[in-house]
Write a structure and sequence with these properties.
The chain is mainly beta and about 270 residues long. It contains 1 helix and 17 strands. The strands form 5 sheets. A 6-stranded mixed sheet has the order 9-8-3-2-12-13. A hairpin with a 7-residue loop joins strand 5 and strand 6.
């Protein structure tokens, strides 16, 4: 009997309740028309939302702005934290037209374009450089911005803001679909919290090995594990495999699995 083991690599692909990499704190609203002709508010603002389930510290962070094609950035530094589901309102440049904003949580002076520009949420206070800096917590390009998450929002105006859908909870990494252009509705730390629900669980698949025999077949058993119990509707996933030191078909028989489900409340498959 052969006494060595061969390795088979597996790929785990989630569908349905897929685990996604999302920022806990996001830019939930951008308005640059404050104080201009026809503006409903006399001040620009940037709004943040904590779409996580625990408080999020923003001490040492900043929000930064550049023009639609600009490479020079200006910043407003942040302190404190945002409770789960809570908002933070950051005041910017001001003008003569429009009503006062609700009480701002952070008072800055960023004078943003009413129509086109770029806003970044950064976990440092160091000024960004370049037209399309990377490594940000969140990023919104609006109008004709030459940098964005996937694609910029539509053009804004003196009377419209970019508003993230679902109270700030929608975050697919596409500015053009995550945001709507609507009448600005600034929310601050006194506004009612909007919960985005429990975070999606992480998912993993364990390793396994077996001794290769001279005849017959044997099943290799793998366990798929969630980092937390599956929520309503369960978690659906696909499993595929590819050659490691074991090769198909001489060492194993390929058997992909699709639409496998860990039911609600369970953690393993």
């Amino acid at each position: 009997m052969l006494s060595f083991a061969r390795r088979l690599a597996l790929v785990l692909v989630l569908a349905g309740s897929a685990v996604a990499a999302q920022a806990q704190v996001v830019i939930s609203q951008v308005y640059g028309g404050g104080g201009n002709s026809g503006a409903p508010f006399n001040r620009d603002f940037i709004e943040l939302h904590n779409n996580g389930t625990t408080p999020a510290s923003i001490a040492g962070w900043s929000v930064q702005y550049a023009s639609s094609t600009g490479t020079t950035w200006a910043a407003t530094n942040l302190t404190g934290s945002i409770p789960a589901g809570g908002y933070l309102l950051i005041g910017g440049g001001s003008g003569a037209t429009g009503a006062a904003l609700p009480a701002v949580d952070v008072s800055g002076s960023l004078a943003m374009s009413a129509t086109n520009g770029k806003v970044a949420l950064v976990n440092t206070t160091t000024l960004l450089t370049g037209a399309c800096p990377t490594g940000n917590v969140d990023f919104v390009g609006f109008g004709s911005a030459n940098c964005s998450e996937t694609a910029p929002t539509a053009v804004l105006s003196n009377s419209t803001a970019a508003l993230r859908a679902n109270g700030g909870c929608t975050d697919t990494g596409n500015n053009s679909t995550d945001f709507a252009v609507v009448t600005p509705t600034p929310r601050n730390s006194a506004s009612s919290a909007v919960s985005c629900g429990a975070p999606l669980p992480t998912i993993s698949i364990d390793n396994t090995s077996m001794t290769e025999g001279n005849s017959g077949t044997a099943n290799a058993v793998f366990t798929v594990t969630l980092g937390a119990p599956a929520g309503a509707g369960g978690v659906t996933f696909d499993i595929g495999n590819f050659d490691g030191t074991a090769a198909d078909p001489s060492d194993y028989v390929n058997q992909d699995l699709t639409a496998q489900t860990i039911p609600e409340g369970a953690t393993t498959y």
